[in-house]
Write a structure and sequence with these properties.
By secondary structure, this protein is an alpha/beta fold. It contains 6 helices and 7 strands.
Length: about 190
């Protein structure tokens, strides 16, 4: 992903203020910036995006391990204290959508039970957003996913180009629906 396309994240991340009473034992960048950034996906593309975002912000990537057990279950281990901090979870959606959703849910729940103050999901492509209308004898899967994310502990979502902007009404917490087209047009005009 080109560095210029990461510009909207800077303004969104800067809205969250530093938590009060940080202890000396917390990482240096948490004390400096007031937030932590984690990669929720075990794929290389998600880790690369998270690294680029943290480089752009001048922060370190949070220490966590996300992997699949031999029986297919997802396991997430948070390797540092997140108590009282604002946490951003970067999650890209690879081909295996259901595994990515479970990784996000489990990581959000692990951070919630570790007493994170706010858990913000950064999901460039929101899964199941095309299933936002009732079909004959069907269900609105996007609404179910919104409920699951809220129950897991997410307090905010940042996404790009939702299939329909009305999807934001499914959530019980704020959703920032960024538009990618202005940044893509700018990049094409300047670079191509």
């Amino acid at each position: 992903m080109p560095r210029k396309l990461l510009l909207p994240y800077k303004s969104v991340f800067s809205r969250f203020r530093a938590p009060r009473g940080l202890h000396d034992s917390l990482a240096m960048n948490a004390a400096r910036s007031g937030y932590r950034v984690f990669s929720a996906n075990s794929t290389a593309a998600c880790t690369e995006l998270a690294k680029r975002i943290t480089e752009r912000l001048g922060a370190e990537l949070g220490k966590s391990v996300v992997y699949q057990e031999t029986n297919g279950e997802t396991r997430v281990e948070i390797k540092e204290s997140v108590r009282g901090q604002d946490i951003f979870i970067i999650q890209t959606i690879p081909r295996d959508v259901n595994t990515a959703v479970m990784e996000l849910l489990i990581m959000a729940y692990a951070l919630k039970t570790s007493c994170a103050r706010n858990i913000i999901g950064v999901i460039p492509y929101f899964p199941y957003s095309k299933q936002s209308k009732m079909r004959k004898r069907g269900s609105i899967v996007c609404k179910l996913l919104a409920s699951m994310l809220a129950k897991a502990g997410l307090t905010h979502i940042i996404t790009m180009d939702l299939h329909q902007k009305e999807i934001q009404g499914f959530f019980s917490f704020p959703v920032d629906n960024l538009r990618a087209s202005p940044f893509l047009l700018q990049y094409i005009q300047e670079e191509v």
